[in-house]
Design a protein that fits this description.
The chain is of the alpha/beta class. Helix content is 23%, strand content 19%. The strands form 4 sheets. The chain has a 7-stranded mixed β-sheet with strand order 7-6-5-3-2-1-18, with helices on one face. Strands 8-9-11-12-13-14-17 form a 7-stranded mixed β-sheet. The chain is globular and about 50 Å long.
Length: 358
C-alpha cells in the first residue's frame, strides 16, 4: 500500500503543476455543444435519462444538469439552482493546493445564457469546495443584473456565507441554514427546502480540504482555501414530488432516517473506487432508507473540461482503486435493485419529473 501511495504522490506532483487565473481561458463559445457533440453519449446512450420537450406554462417540474453538481430546478414559477459551478479550470494544469483561482465572469455569463437561465430565486449549496462554490457570487451578480437589483437568496453553511461575502454579496442576500429546518415562502414559491446533515467522500480516510472558512474569501485565492465547511444533503419538496440531492458520495449515519424521496439526485464521482463495504453501506444508508422511485446521477463528468467541449467521464485517480469509471456505479445500483430506474443526468437537457409525482 505504501508503494502505491508514494507512486500516486509522485505522479500528482508531476501532473498538478502550473497556475490558473481568470481570463487565461479562451471564452470563444459558439454556443454550448449539446449531447450529440460527444461520443460518450453515443457509446452509453442507454445510461442517460432522455430529455423531454417542455412547453411553456406553470404546470411542470424539470431539472437541468449543468455539470459537476450544478442542477437547475424549475416549476415554471420559481427557479432554484444547486451548486452553480461553470468556470471549470483544468485541474491538470494548475497546482491544486497552491494555485489561485477566480470565477470567470465571461464563461459564467455565457453558460447562463446558453442554459436559458435569466432568473433565479434561490441558490442552494451542499458544501464549499471550489468545484461547488467558486462561482456563486458571480452567478448571483449576473442574475441581479437581469432582474433589476433582485439577487437570488443564497442558502448554505457559514463557510458559504464567507464565500458569498468575499465575492461581494451582502448579508441580506445570504441565509446561513440550520440542519433540519424547513425553508418555505418568499421566492421559493411551491418549493419547500430542508437542509440535512451529510458527509463528503473521503480519500485516504480524510475529506479533501477539510475544515471551515472563517473569514470572507475574496478571489483570486488558493483552491485549498475553499474548505468543505458544513456539508448538507438538500431535500426539495414540491406538489409533483420530493427531490433529494447529495453532492458527494457519502452520508451521515441516521441523518436520512424518516426521509422519503421520489427522486434521488446523487453526486456519484469516485463512488466506484470505494471498497465494497463502503458502497454497500452507502446504498443501505441512502437508497434503502429513502426508498426513491428514480435515481439520477450527477458529478459524473470531468469538471476539468469546459462545458462547450465534448463531455467525458470523471476520472479521479485513486491509487488503491484505479481510475474512476462512473458506468460501474450505475451497474452496481442496477444490480442492487433492478426495480429502481437509474440514469445519468445528461448535461444541458431538461428532464421532466412530473410523471413520477403525479
Amino acid at each position: 500500500m505504501r508503494t502505491k501511495l508514494v507512486l500516486f504522490l509522485l505522479v500528482a506532483a508531476l501532473v498538478l503543476v502550473g497556475t490558473y487565473s481568470a481570463g487565461c481561458q479562451d471564452v470563444g463559445y459558439d454556443c454550448m455543444r449539446r449531447r450529440e457533440s460527444s461520443r460518450l453519449y453515443d457509446e452509453y446512450a442507454d445510461y442517460f435519462a432522455k430529455s423531454d420537450e417542455i412547453g411553456p406554462g406553470e404546470d411542470k417540474l424539470t431539472v437541468k444538469f449543468l455539470g459537476t453538481n450544478s442542477i437547475f430546478i424549475t416549476d415554471g414559477q420559481s427557479n432554484l439552482m444547486i451548486d452553480p459551478y461553470f468556470t471549470r479550470p483544468n485541474i491538470w494544469t494548475l497546482g491544486i493546493c497552491f494555485a489561485k483561482v477566480s470565477p470567470d465572469r465571461s464563461i459564467i455569463k455565457k453558460t447562463l445564457e446558453c442554459a436559458g437561465i435569466k432568473r433565479l430565486d434561490a441558490i442552494l449549496m451542499t458544501h464549499a469546495h471550489y468545484d461547488h462554490a467558486l462561482d456563486i457570487a458571480e452567478v448571483s451578480k449576473l442574475i441581479e443584473e437581469e432582474n433589476a437589483n433582485k439577487y437570488p437568496k443564497l442558502f448554505g453553511s457559514e463557510s458559504i456565507r464567507m464565500v458569498g461575502l468575499g465575492g461581494g454579496l451582502s448579508e441580506k442576500d445570504i441565509e446561513v441554514v440550520t440542519a433540519g429546518r424547513r425553508y418555505e415562502g418568499g421566492g421559493l414559491g411551491r418549493f419547500k427546502v430542508t437542509f440535512l446533515d451529510a458527509a463528503h467522500m473521503t480519500i485516504f480516510g480524510s475529506v479533501p480540504f477539510s475544515g471551515r472558512i472563517k473569514k470572507p474569501l475574496t478571489p483570486p485565492c488558493r483552491v485549498a482555501s475553499y474548505k468543505v465547511g458544513k456539508i448538507y444533503a438538500i431535500l426539495i419538496e414540491h406538489p409533483f414530488g420530493k427531490i433529494l440531492n447529495l453532492g458527494s458520495a457519502n452520508y451521515r449515519a441516521n441523518s436520512l432516517d424518516g426521509i422519503d424521496a421520489d427522486y434521488l439526485l446523487l453526486g456519484i464521482g469516485g463512488f466506484d473506487t470505494q471498497s465494497a463495504k463502503s458502497k454497500n453501506k452507502f446504498y443501505e444508508g441512502v437508497v434503502v432508507n429513502t426508498r426513491p422511485k428514480r435515481i439520477l446521477f450527477t458529478h459524473w463528468d470531468d469538471y476539468n473540461i469546459r462545458l462547450d467541449k465534448p463531455v467525458e467521464w470523471l476520472k479521479p485517480l485513486n491509487p488503491l482503486g484505479g481510475f474512476s469509471c462512473p458506468p460501474k456505479s450505475l451497474r452496481f445500483f442496477n444490480a442492487k435493485n433492478p426495480k429502481i430506474r437509474v440514469d445519468f443526468l445528461p448535461i444541458w437537457e431538461d428532464i421532466d419529473l412530473r410523471p413520477m409525482g403525479n
